[in-house]
Design goal:
Oligomer: heterodimer
Strand content of chain A: under 5%
Number of strands of chain B: 0
Shape of chain A: globular
CATH topology of chain A: Amino acid/polyamine transporter I
Helix content of chain B: 40-55%
CATH architecture of chain A: Up-down Bundle
Distance between the termini of chain B: 35 Å
Distance between the termini of chain A: 13 Å
Number of domains of chain A: 1
Structural class of chain A: mainly alpha
CATH superfamily of chain A: Amino acid/polyamine transporter I
Helix content of chain A: 55-70%
Strand order of the largest sheet of chain A: 1-2
Structural class of chain B: mainly alpha
Order of helices and strands of chain B: HHHH
Number of domains of chain B: 1
Radius of gyration of chain A: 26 Å
Shape of chain B: flat
Largest interface: A-B, 92 and 61 residues
Number of helices of chain A: 28
Order of helices and strands of chain A: HHEHHHHHHHHHHHEHHHHHHHHHHHHHHH
Number of helices of chain B: 4
């Protein structure tokens, strides 16, 4: 080193200082934590034990926030001490590889927002809505306990381990830790899982927009808006991102309002009332074009718009729930909690609750963001707890709010919206007969209730609007109208919510297609090196085409499925997502064992749970003899009926429909087998690597070499007294050395 | 492996947001341009949307002591989106 680092102020608190901060239990501190614990405890008692006629939504907020605070302060700190052991003397990749591009030290508070915007999408909004069929308690417990012990742990560990490895991706870490077999299985699993996730997200949008001219118009208009923003940023005012996002946002509000006018005209209703199959084809074509167009034209501006909307709407919903504090009439445990014939997603609570709600409690997809993008932006190692663990807690809070929104609407309406058209016939009368026939206490659905609700939100009908998004939108509009505007604004809020979900699902669709295309090109490059060249147009088009065909086929299958599509496919989404989590956790386990860490149970507990849940769920899907649960049972039942020469069977009214079921269940059943086999291979190789590391007391590290850090920044959102002191020392140092910087170049 | 050590001076002429931000903090990251709530909110939103990437690049360029002149704002954003073209970032469900 050409400059004596001794003349710099310390770049890290000493271990003693950190220890002293943690153990400084002043009376005020003790009182604060005691109050948090008591409030959280009371809230849990209100939710789980005291069951009056209704329960106020504010208890959900208290139970969640108090549990998060305690988990962050104590459990995440335990993980920090036992597993990650960050060292602020070590430069992060953002510092030693800084390039003004992807490696860029970013303020921890900004990065928190950035990371949150990247991980949170439609997942935490959809799963809790579907799980609300079981009552509010199972979902609430799993979302909050799951995030503390599983989801946040996974995000934190993957982020930290990737950061120590220069920001390596999950796939690269799998190869490094598990060797060729485990690495290849991990890559294949990731690729197939991405296809199914993109397909099912797209299905959510299709279901929300089908037969809704208002929705089709306003969501369709986001494409020209994004193109305009792209041209604006490229040619008119480069870099003015918040300016163009604001313009885009205003235009978005305009098209939401205009959607109502357009849908009211005869030409508008005629042009924009599209059936689901047409919309699905539209999204497939859009997905292909978006993935091959230049990023600056469509993808980047859409992403800005989506971030803007996402954070804005989530903050708005949180504020509204706290201010409105809706009374919830849904029971803690519904009639379906103890049965396996629930009408929205079939199957017993264990394991199907845990795959219906993936995002918000444990989401494997986050491992792809926590490795690769975010670790290259972290300024100091100790900030990983705040970004990784803390970021996932925020997503869990979003899931809790989605649950609250879904259970704030009438339970009869909830079931009428979420039960597939196969059961309701898609008509108001059919839905009323079906829902009242379920024999649910306190549910007395009338045709007027459904018609009024549909009219309030400006839709022709809300019967069998499956997929979660419309229910959430209705819940959100129900809460927001109590705050602003009354029933006259309900239709605006409804379509605002639909727009907000469609926007970031479509962002996930085109970003996912691009990422998958690059993964495929990289894999094909092993056999045909030219595919590695990602600027080779033909290769890019071929690989994009393959990826789009993959998710497009599943999407079309879901849309045309006589059994109701999303309700049979959604469990596959949850299983896929959690298998990815099991895969990520098993890689973390292998790494922690290599480093000879002792508290491995922190990883083993969520890994074992995710493995058991997804394996059991997959086995149900493969082997269950109940046709509504098992894909192969369904497959066999329809095949037999065809063989007997029947022309209609169950909900399928024609031979073609029956053949479609046979085909669909074959694909779904095959995918279930592929997922579970690939993931078990990865977990097995990881467990073997772990055992061999434990036997030999650790193994050579796969981390990058130590580089001395020459900068300082605090670890959490609020600086501690010792951190403030250090910041002051740095401020004084920089005041004395005004033109010197503390960091060299490559 | 990157080297550490050479103290590269920040150009005292470096003006605007980037200059102020580079001098304000002990960190490498771009800080708010002032202490008022508006400055802080603006800084947070811009940071989250990625708008401050150019400021961060300028500060990085100055620190690195690289003799070639820094890219203009327009060229920087082209370089950045072209780079994104080759390095797609996932978005989560």
């Amino acid at each position: 080193m050409s400059v004596d680092s001794a003349e710099l102020p310390p770049v890290s608190l000493t271990e003693e200082q950190v220890e002293a901060e943690e153990k400084r239990w002043t009376p005020v501190r003790i009182a604060t934590w005691a109050a948090i614990a008591v409030l959280g405890g009371v809230a849990w008692v209100m939710l789980a034990i005291v069951r009056g006629e209704t329960i106020n939504a504010i208890w959900f907020v208290f139970a969640a926030v108090c549990t998060y605070l305690i988990a962050y302060r104590f459990y995440a700190t335990y993980i920090e001490k036992k597993i990650t052991q960050p060292d602020d003397n070590r430069a992060t990749p953002a510092e030693y590889k800084e390039n003004g591009q992807d490696y860029m030290p970013t303020d921890r508070r900004v990065l928190y927002g950035h990371h949150f915007a990247a991980i949170a999408g439609a997942g935490p909004l959809v799963g809790p809505v579907l799980a609300a069929q079981l009552g509010y308690l199972p979902g609430t417990i799993w979302i909050i306990v799951g995030v503390v012990l599983a989801g946040a742990v996974q995000d934190y560990l993957v982020l930290f381990f990737s950061m120590r490895r220069g920001g390596r991706s999950l796939g690269q870490m799998a190869r490094d830790e598990l060797g060729k077999v485990g690495g290849t299985a991990a890559l294949l699993a990731t690729l197939t899982i991405m296809i199914i996730i993109v397909a099912i997200l797209a299905l959510v949008v299709v279901n929300a927009l089908g037969e809704s001219p208002w929705g089709v118009f306003s969501v369709g208009m986001t494409i020209p808006i994004a193109l305009f923003m792209g041209v604006y940023l490229r040619y008119l005012r480069p870099g003015k991102v918040s300016e163009v996002s604001l313009i885009g946002f205003v235009l978005l509000i305009l098209v939401i309002v205009a959607g109502g006018w357009v849908a009211d005209t005869s030409w508008g209703a005629e042009w924009f009332t599209l059936d689901r199959t047409t919309i699905a084809w539209g999204i497939i074509i859009y997905g292909f074009i978006a993935a091959v167009l230049p990023v600056w034209l469509l993808l980047a501006p859409r992403d800005y718009l989506s971030t803007f909307m996402k954070v804005g709407t989530i903050v708005m919903l949180a504020v509204a729930i706290v201010l409105v504090r809706p009374e919830i009439t849904v029971p803690a445990l519904s009639e379906f909690a103890g049965r396996s014939d629930a009408p929205v997603v079939a199957g017993p609570l264990f394991p199907f609750l845990f795959v219906t709600i993936a995002c918000g409690a444990l989401s494997g997809f986050h491992a792809l963001i926590s490795s690769g993008t975010t670790p290259k932006l972290i300024e100091k190692e100790r900030q990983t707890k705040f970004i990784g663990y803390g970021g996932m807690l925020m997503e869990s809070f979003v899931a809790i709010m989605a649950l609250v929104a879904a259970i704030s609407i009438d339970r009869g309406i909830y079931f009428a919206m979420n039960v597939s058209a196969a059961a309701t016939g898609g008509t108001v009368e059919g839905a009323v007969a079906y829902v009242n026939g379920l024999g649910l206490t306190g549910v007395n659905l009338t045709p007027e209730m459904l018609e009024t609700a549909a009219a309030n939100v400006g839709e022709e009908s809300i019967v069998s609007r499956t997929g979660g998004a419309p229910t959430l939108a209705l819940g959100l509009s129900h809460i927001m109208q109590q705050l602003i505007g009354g029933t006259s604004l309900m239709s605006f809020w409804y379509h605002f919510a639909i727009m907000f979900e469609a926007l970031f699902i479509l962002t996930a669709v085109d970003a996912g297609t691009r990422v998958a295309r690059f993964m495929l090109q990289d894999s094909l490059g092993n056999f045909w090196p030219r595919f590695r060249d990602t600027s080779w147009r033909t290769g890019a088009w071929v690989c994009t085409g393959i990826m789009v065909a993959g998710w497009g086929a599943i999407l079309i299958m879901g849309v045309t499925d006589p059994l109701g599509g999303i309700n049979t496919l959604f469990p596959l989404f949850g299983i896929a997502n959690q298998l990815l989590a099991a895969l990520a956790l098993s890689i973390c386990l292998a790494i922690a064992a290599r480093q000879n860490r002792k508290a491995l149970w922190v990883i083993i507990v969520p890994l074992a749970f995710a493995t058991v849940v997804t394996t059991v769920a997959s086995l149900y899907k493969i082997f269950s003899s109940v046709p509504s649960i098992g894909y192969w049972a369904q497959h066999a039942a329809f095949k037999d009926a065809l063989a007997r020469g029947e022309t209609s069977f169950g909900t399928a009214g024609s031979v073609e429909a029956m053949e479609a079921v046979v085909r669909n269940t074959f694909i779904q059943g095959t995918l279930s087998i592929v997922f579970v086999v690939l993931t078990l291979i990865v977990i097995a190789t990881a467990v073997m690597a772990t055992i061999s590391s434990i036997r030999s007391g650790g193994a050579p590290t796969t981390e990058e070499e130590f580089v001395q850090s020459r900068i300082y920044a605090p670890a959490g959102i609020i600086s501690t007294p010792a951190e403030k002191d250090l910041e002051a020392q740095w401020a004084a140092y920089l005041a004395e050395h005004p033109v010197e910087r503390v960091r060299g170049h490559h | 492996m990157a080297q550490t050590g050479t103290m590269a001076p920040v150009d005292p002429e470096l003006s605007g947001d980037a200059g102020r931000a580079a001098r304000r903090t002990a960190r490498l990251s771009v800080g708010p341009t002032g202490d008022g709530w508006w400055d802080r909110t603006r800084w947070f939103i811009r940071g989250m949307l990625g708008e401050n990437a150019y400021q961060a690049y300028l500060a990085h360029h100055e620190r690195s002591g690289c003799p070639t002149p820094a890219l203009s704002e327009r060229d920087y954003w082209r370089w950045r989106t072209d780079w994104q073209e080759r390095n797609p970032q996932g978005r989560c469900c």
